[in-house]
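Exercise 7b. Backbone tokens:
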């Protein structure tokens, strides 16, 4: 009796197992027939609850399949769009340029003209870098004491090398970099080179000429400060001196008060007064009739390359609180003070006199000194002799605040446009020189 019951239970279990296998096969493994196409004139206005049974077979997974197909189509279209965008970006970014900032003027190029950022922000960092896309070019910038030949990654075939050629020791260091670049050219690691050069204040830049391509060298383009007579707007271009970034002069954002507040002083001059120079004449004229009491004057007998926190703050305050900034010539007519005054909306009054040396008119420009600024129609006051200053200050006294506000706005707007135009000229020059020509 017990044996019969066991056999019956076993049979039931086997039957249940076979039924389960069949059900699993039907649900998961059995091929599903594709639904037949709908008749061309089928009436689609009927009730959704009515299901036609005949040539069409109901598919319980039809809704899921349609959703999956729609999702798959969306993913395909999204990937296609991503590929198009990547291809478009690749086509638009036709050039990669790495800028090696080995002179402080490189910071003026990157932070003031390109309005680029650097990481880390700490100005004492051993290594700082930044990047941005401009025009059809992707620019990367590196600077700092740790950037030395052979100890950093060369990440582009096109290089802009920023150098200081102001004095002999700086030139020696600059030539070491040029020799390193020459090796990279010879080993085909880079293709094109441009140099941004803080030139000599008397324009004694002969040492750079053998490196220029026109003289058998490898430097395609040269951007050089001061009124260098060999500027030709073909491969040698004049570049602005800019602000004293070596003293950490900041990027100044105009504020409402900078533009609208009355200023305490008619003019300012904080700087070195050299013996037997026009600056002595300026000091004598300011003392006449008490004009020095209307201006912020702080003269010193020796040049000081390093600023203290106090002296730097005084200098910035003088620019911010003066309507005019007096710019007497030094070794060269062009000076950092011109651009720093523009940053604060203090109109430069410039001694428009050529200094001794090899600077002067070039084949392209005939308005030296300051031919670049004059070409860009700088709205400054140019005087030939400081004896003209009393009349300038007398006129200044009679100006209304509203007139001064309009002048400040005009000056700051000009300076903003000046930097934008220099940036665009720099980019266009590199792209025209470094990109392959479309001409057949």
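Sequence design result:
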């Amino acid at each position: 009796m017990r044996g019969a019951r066991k056999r019956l239970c076993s049979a039931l279990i086997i039957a249940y197992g076979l039924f389960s296998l069949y059900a699993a096969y039907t649900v998961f493994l059995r091929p599903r027939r594709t639904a037949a196409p709908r008749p061309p004139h089928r009436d689609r206005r009927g009730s959704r609850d009515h299901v036609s049974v005949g040539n069409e077979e109901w598919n319980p997974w039809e809704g899921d399949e349609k959703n999956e197909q729609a999702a798959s189509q969306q993913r395909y279209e999204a990937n296609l769009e991503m590929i198009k965008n990547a291809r478009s970006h690749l086509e638009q970014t036709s050039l990669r340029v790495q800028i090696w900032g080995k002179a402080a003027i490189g910071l003026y190029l990157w932070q003031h003209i390109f309005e680029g950022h650097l990481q880390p922000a700490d100005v004492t960092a051993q290594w700082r870098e930044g990047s941005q896309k401009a025009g059809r070019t992707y620019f990367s910038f590196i600077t700092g004491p740790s950037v030395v030949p052979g100890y950093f990654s060369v990440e582009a075939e096109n290089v802009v090398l920023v150098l200081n050629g102001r004095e002999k020791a700086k030139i020696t260091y600059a030539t070491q970099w040029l020799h390193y670049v020459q090796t990279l050219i010879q080993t085909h690691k880079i293709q094109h080179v441009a140099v941004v050069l803080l030139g000599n204040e008397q324009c004694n830049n002969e040492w750079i000429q053998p490196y220029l391509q026109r003289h058998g060298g490898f430097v395609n383009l040269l951007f050089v400060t001061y009124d260098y007579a060999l500027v030709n707007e073909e491969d040698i271009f004049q570049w602005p001196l800019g602000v004293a970034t070596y003293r950490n002069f900041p990027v100044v954002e105009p504020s409402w008060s900078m533009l609208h507040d009355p200023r305490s002083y008619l003019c300012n001059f904080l700087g070195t007064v050299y013996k037997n120079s026009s600056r002595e004449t300026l000091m004598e004229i300011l003392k006449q009739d008490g004009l020095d009491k209307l201006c912020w004057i702080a003269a010193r007998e020796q040049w000081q390359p390093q600023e203290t926190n106090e002296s730097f703050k005084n200098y910035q305050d003088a620019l911010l609180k003066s309507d005019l900034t007096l710019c007497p010539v030094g070794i060269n007519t062009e000076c950092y003070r011109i651009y720093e005054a523009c940053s604060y909306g203090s109109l430069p009054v410039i001694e428009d006199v050529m200094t001794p040396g090899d600077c002067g008119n070039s084949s392209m420009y005939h308005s030296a000194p300051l031919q670049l600024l004059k070409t860009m129609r700088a709205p400054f006051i140019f005087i030939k002799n400081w004896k003209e200053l009393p009349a300038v200050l007398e006129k200044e006294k009679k100006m209304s605040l509203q007139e001064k506000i309009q002048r400040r706005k005009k000056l700051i707007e000009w300076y903003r446009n000046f930097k934008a135009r220099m940036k665009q000229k720099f980019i266009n020059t590199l792209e025209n020189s470094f990109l392959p020509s479309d001409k057949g």
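Instructor comment: Residues 1-6, 32-56 have pLDDT under 50 and may be disordered. The radius of gyration is 37 Å.
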